[in-house]
Amino acid sequence: MPVLDPDRLFPAEARTRDIARTLFAAIEGAPILSPHGHCDPAWFAGNAAFPDPARLFVVPDHYIFRMLVSQGVPLTALGVPRVDGGETERDGRAIWRLFAGHYHLFRGTPTRLWVDHALAEVFGVSAALGPDTADAIFDEVADRLAQPEFRPRALFDRFGIEVLATTDDALSDLAHHEAIRASGWGGRVIPTYRPDAVIDPEYEGFAGNVAALGRLTGCDTASWEGYLEAHRRRRAAFRALGATATDHGHASARTENLAPDAAARLFRTCLQGEAGTGEADAFRGQMLTEMARMSVEDGMTMQIHAGSRRNHSGPVMAMHGRDKGFDIPQRTDYVAALKPLLDAVGMEPELRIVLFTLDESVYSRELAPLAGVYPALRLGPPWWFFDSPEGMMRFRRLTGETAGIYNTAGFNDDTRAFCSIPARHDVARRVDCAWLAGLVADGRIGMDEAREMAAELTTGLVRRAYRL
Amino acid sequence: MPVLDPDRLFPAEARTRDIARTLFAAIEGAPILSPHGHCDPAWFAGNAAFPDPARLFVVPDHYIFRMLVSQGVPLTALGVPRVDGGETERDGRAIWRLFAGHYHLFRGTPTRLWVDHALAEVFGVSAALGPDTADAIFDEVADRLAQPEFRPRALFDRFGIEVLATTDDALSDLAHHEAIRASGWGGRVIPTYRPDAVIDPEYEGFAGNVAALGRLTGCDTASWEGYLEAHRRRRAAFRALGATATDHGHASARTENLAPDAAARLFRTCLQGEAGTGEADAFRGQMLTEMARMSVEDGMTMQIHAGSRRNHSGPVMAMHGRDKGFDIPQRTDYVAALKPLLDAVGMEPELRIVLFTLDESVYSRELAPLAGVYPALRLGPPWWFFDSPEGMMRFRRLTGETAGIYNTAGFNDDTRAFCSIPARHDVARRVDCAWLAGLVADGRIGMDEAREMAAELTTGLVRRAYRL
Amino acid sequence: MPVLDPDRLFPAEARTRDIARTLFAAIEGAPILSPHGHCDPAWFAGNAAFPDPARLFVVPDHYIFRMLVSQGVPLTALGVPRVDGGETERDGRAIWRLFAGHYHLFRGTPTRLWVDHALAEVFGVSAALGPDTADAIFDEVADRLAQPEFRPRALFDRFGIEVLATTDDALSDLAHHEAIRASGWGGRVIPTYRPDAVIDPEYEGFAGNVAALGRLTGCDTASWEGYLEAHRRRRAAFRALGATATDHGHASARTENLAPDAAARLFRTCLQGEAGTGEADAFRGQMLTEMARMSVEDGMTMQIHAGSRRNHSGPVMAMHGRDKGFDIPQRTDYVAALKPLLDAVGMEPELRIVLFTLDESVYSRELAPLAGVYPALRLGPPWWFFDSPEGMMRFRRLTGETAGIYNTAGFNDDTRAFCSIPARHDVARRVDCAWLAGLVADGRIGMDEAREMAAELTTGLVRRAYRL
C-alpha cells in the first residue's frame, strides 16, 4: 500500500465513495486561499532555504511536540528553547530520530495525515516514517531543502497558493510585507491586524505597547479618542499592504458596549495599571465592539478566536515560556457574551465577523443559531484540536442544519508549518466532499447542488467572508 | 431525479437501507398524532381558504425568514410586521420571489425537506423551487389554495391526522375549540394549557393577567389558594374541550418546592410587582412544581420546554417584537434544577412529565440518566433547531442506551406551518427507521423487535405519553 | 437468528466489516485484564455457589433495576432492601418474572448485550429472554448455579481472567484478599485503595473513620503528618496484597495544592466537624494532590472518577439508601480543577493518573487536550452510562485525534455483575475493532498498524497504565 491512499477520508460505502470521488476531482486542483495562519513573512521576504528537517517539522510545531511530551519526552530533548537560555538539544538528526521513534503515537491523528502528505507530496519521500527509516528520510528531506525549488517562494508557487495571510502584531513595522511587495515576486502574502498586545490590559507591557502605538501613528494614545484613532490608522496601514482582516484571541467571547465616557474611564484605569481582573476583561470586551465598529467603517473582516486557556502548566511556562503546547480549551459562552456587540452591529449587512471556538458543545446550541440569523456573523472552520477529519465532520453535522453552509467561511489552515498547507487543505476538501456525498447519497441534495457547494466551500465562501 | 428521493434519509449501505425500507413501509401510512404544536384553531373553526403562498409558507415561519435575514435580507422585505405599524412588503409574489431566490441557502437543512415535501406532496408541484420557477410555483400553489380540497379541514383529513393539539393561553376563551366541537366536523383538534402569561412574573401585564384569570374562573386570584384553584378550574375547562396536556416554556428548568406559606408570600411579592429577577425565577420554579402536583391530581401530561433565551436582538425586538427568529438556545442544567420537583412527585407512577431541551450536551449527561430512572419522566423529541435528521439521530444515539425508547414520547411536529405537518412526520419516521435499521444490521436487536419499536415510536409511545 | 449475532457491533458495510472481523479474530481470545471493578473478594475467598438468578442478575445491578423503576416498577418489588428493614420481595422467581416481563425495555441498551451474552455464553441458554421463557430460563440458570463449574473460581478460570482488581475501603481488613492468597488457588485477585471514607469530610462518620485509620496503622491521625503517614502505610499494606492502584470518587475534579501548614489547618477544621461545604471540598481537592504525590513515591496508579451527583432522589435515599440507581452525572470541569495537581506533579514521567468522566462534552474540549500533553495523565475508558457501543465509539472519535490511543488506558469493566465480565470485554473489543476498521477503510492507518493498536487497546495499554 502506498503511504497515501488515493481514497483517504472518503466514505467506505461504494456508492457514496464514488460520489465523493467525483466531487473531489472537481475541486482537488482549486487554488489555495489561506486567509488565516501563522507563517512568517520573513520566509517570503528573504526566500532563504528552510533549516534542517527537525527545525522545519518538529521544533516549531506544537501538535508534534505536545504528543511526544505526553509520553514523557522532555521539551529540552526536542530542542525547544528555554527561557533561561539553558541547554537544549541542538542536533537536528537526534531530534528527528526521537520524532520518528515515536511516530506511532500519531496513528489516527491529523498530524499523521499532514506529515505523511508533506513527506510524500512535497518532498517525494516514498518510505513510511518510523525508527528504521528516520535517518534516510532525514537525509532525503535535508537534501531537498538545499535545492532552489524548495525555497519558500518556489514552494508557495508550487502549492498553488493564491493568497496567504500572516498574523501580525499591531506594533509590527510590516517590513517583511513591504519587502515582499518591493521584490517584484508575484506571490500574494498579506498581513492580518492582531492587536492583542495593545488591547489586552493583562498582556505583558500593555502601557508601553499603547505608548508605542502612539509613536507609530502620531496619535495621543493616552486619551481614549486618540487611542481609537491610532487603531484606525494602523488598520489603514495594514490595509495598504493588502490586509483584509483583523484577528482577536481572547480567553472568552465577552463583549461590552459602554457609553463613550465610561469606556474612556475604563481605558484610563487599564492604562494606569489599576484594572482588576474584571475590569481588564471588560476592557477586552469593549474593544471587540470597537473593532467591530471600525470594521463597519473600513470593511475589514473581524475574526474572534475565543476560549483558549493559555499556558496551563505553570512549570512549563516558567521553563519554556508561551505557546509550548500547553494551551487548553475551556468552556465558552457566546450567547450572552456576544449580545452587546450584536446589539450594536449584528444587523449590519456588510459586516463580517468570523467566529471560532474550542468548545464543540456550542456548535449546535449557540454558534449555528446565532450565525443562522445575524447577518454580520459567519462561522469559522473547526479550529486547532478540531482541524481534523472527525472534527470537521462533526462541525458540518452540528451546524449545517441550522446555519447551512452559506453562513460558514470555508477553510483556514491556521498553521506555521508551511509544508503542511497543501495537506491541510487536502484533508478539508476531502472531508467536505465526504460530507456532501452523504447528503447526496441519502437524497437530501442533488449532485448538481453538491458540486456547487463543494466549490463554495473550497473558494467561494472564503473569498466572500474575507473579501479576497 | 424527482424532487423527493423515495429512499431519502435512509442509510446508504444496501443491506441496512433494505431494512429501513421494510420498517418504513409498515409505518409510513400510520395516522398522524400531533400532541404539541402551534396551529391556529381558527383555521378549523372557520375553514376559510389559506392566504397566498408567501403568507402561508414564508411570513409566519421563523425557520425560513431567519435564514434569509442571516444573509442580509431585511425582515421588512419579507412582510414581517413592524411594532410601529410601519411599512413592510405587502406583495406576496415579491416575498415569494425573494424566498425562491435564496432557496439554495436551505441546502442540507430540514426546511428544505419540509418545503420540498409540502410543494410536491400537498400541492402536486413537480418542479424544483428556485429563481426560475418562482412565479410558476407561486401561481400553481395559489391556484390550489383557492380550491375547496385545500381548505384546512380537507387537508386535515387528507393528511390522516388523528389528533392535533394546539397551544392556548390560559386566558383564552377557547371559542374556536368550542366552535370546532359544535360544527359537527369530525376532526379532533384539542387545546393545550399554556399558562406562561399568568405564571411568569416578568411576562407583560402579569398582575392584570392574574386578575383576568380570577374573573374567568370566579376565584380570588389575589390569594395564593385562590390563584391555585383558578388554575385547577382552567385546567378543567381545557380538559372539557379535550385537552390532555399542559405546556411550560421557561428560560431555565429551575424548580422549587417551597412550604405553602413561603410560596404564598412569594406570590404576593410577584403580584405587587416587587419581585427581583431571582424571586421571579423562583416563582416560575415553584409553579412548575405546583403544575406537576395538579397533573398528579387531574392526569394532564406536563411538558417543559426549557432553555430558550428569547428575543436575543434588542433592535429586532424593538422593531418587530417577539418570535422573530432571534430566540437562541443557552446552556441549561436539569440535574440540580429539577431536583425539588422530582423529590416532590418524581416517583409518581402515573404522572407524565415530558422534557425538552435546546442544549444537546444534556442528552446523555442529564436527561437520559434522569428519564432512565424516574417513573414520572419522559423525553420529548428533539426540539426546534434539532428537529432535523442529524438532530434526531444524535438524540437516539445519545439517549437510547441509557433511557431506551420506552422513556421517550414519540414525535412532535411543534409547528405553525400546517402544510409541513406530513413532511415533518415523514422525516421523523424515516430517521427512526434508519436508526433502527442500524441496530438490526449490527445485531443489537432482531427484525421483529425493530418492527414493534417502529410502531411504538410512531404511535404507541405518543398515545401513552399524552394519554391520547 | 441466534440470540447472539457473530458479527454484532461490526460496521454494516461489507469491506469495513471484514476488516473488523479480521482484527477481532486476533484479540477475541486475549486474556481479560480487569484493573477496576466492584466484584466482592469474598466470592473468591469462600468460593460458595452464587445465589438464585434474580439475586445474581437483578437485585444488585443498578443498570437493570433503574430501567424497571423508570417504568413504574417499585424497588420493593425487585427485592431491593429497605433502610427500615421493611418488607420487600423475597421470591427470586417473582423478581425474575418481573425482569423478563420488562426485558423489552432494554432494546438498544448495553444491558441487553450483557445479559444475552451471559445467558448464552456463560449459562448455555439458547432461548431469548422474555415473559414466555422466564420460568424455563430461571430454572436452567438456577440449575447451573448449583454445579461446581459455576462457582466463582471456576468461572474466573473459564472467563480467562488474568487479573481482577476489586475496590476496597481504606479501612478494610483485606481478610478476603489474604484468604485468597493463602488458599493456594492461582487466580490473581487484587485490592484497590479507595479512601473516600477517610478523605471526604462529608462522608458519614469521617472523624471516626480517621481515628480508625490511626488504630489500624499505629499513626497519630489527629495530626496532619500522622494522617498522611497512615495513608502511606495503608497503601503499602494494599500493595503487599498485590494492589497497583488507588481510586477516588469525588463529585468534582477539584484539586488544591496548599502549603503544608494551611493544609494542616484545613485538616484540623475538617476533623473537628467545623468544615463548611467549601472547606470540605477544598480538603478533598488537597487530598487528590497528596494522593498523587504518594503515587509518585510508591508507583501506584491513581484513578479519578469525578462528576457523579450521588443519591439524587431524596425519597429513594430515605427509603433504600445509597447506590440505588439514582446517581446522576453533572457538568464537570477539569481544566481549572486539575491545574493545582498538574502544576505539582503533572510533568512526572512515571506517574499514572487515569481520568474518568460522566460529562462527554469534556472529551474533546478538556480531557483529550490535557492527556495529549501532560505525561502523568491517561484517559480511562467510557464510564458507567457511557460503557456502551455508542458511548465507546464517541469516546474514540472525540479523543483519538488529539490524544491518540497511547494516552488512553484500555478497558475497565467496572462491574459488580461477575457473569457479565466476558460480555463487557467482548463489547469493548468489538467496538474498538469497529473503530479501527473504519480508520483502515478510509486510509488513515494501515492494517498492520490496526493489528498492533487492537492488541494495545486490549492488553498492552492496560498493563502499562496499571503496571500489571
Q: Could you characterize the architecture of this molecule?
A:
Three copies of one chain form a homotrimer. By secondary structure, chain A is α/β, with parallel strands linked by helices. Chain A has two domains: 345 residues, Metal-dependent hydrolases (TIM Barrel); 102 residues, uronate isomerase, domain 2, chain A. Chain A contains 20 helices and eleven strands. In chain A, the strands form four sheets. Chain A has a four-stranded parallel sheet with strand order 6-7-10-11, covered by helices on one side. A three-stranded parallel sheet of chain A has the order 1-2-4. In chain A, strands 3-5 form a two-stranded parallel ribbon. In chain A, helix 13 packs across helix 14, helix 17 crosses helix 18 and helix 19 packs across helix 20. Chains in contact: A-B, A-C, B-C. At the A-B interface, helix 16, helix 17, helix 18, helix 19 and helix 20 of A face helix 4, helix 6, helix 15, strand 9 and helix 18 of B. Chains A, B, C: It comes from Wenxinia saemankumensis.
Extract low-pLDDT stretches of chain A.
Answer: none
The proportion of strand residues of chain A reads: 5-15%
Overall number of strands of chain A: 11
Name given to the CATH homologous superfamily of the largest domain in chain A: Metal-dependent hydrolases
The top level CATH class name of the largest domain in chain A: Alpha Beta
Give Rg of chain A in angstroms: 22 Å
The protein's oligomeric status is: homotrimer
Can you tell me the overall shape of chain A?
Answer: globular
CATH topology of the largest domain in chain A: TIM Barrel
Individual helix count of chain A: 20
| Largest sheet report of chain A | 4 strands, parallel
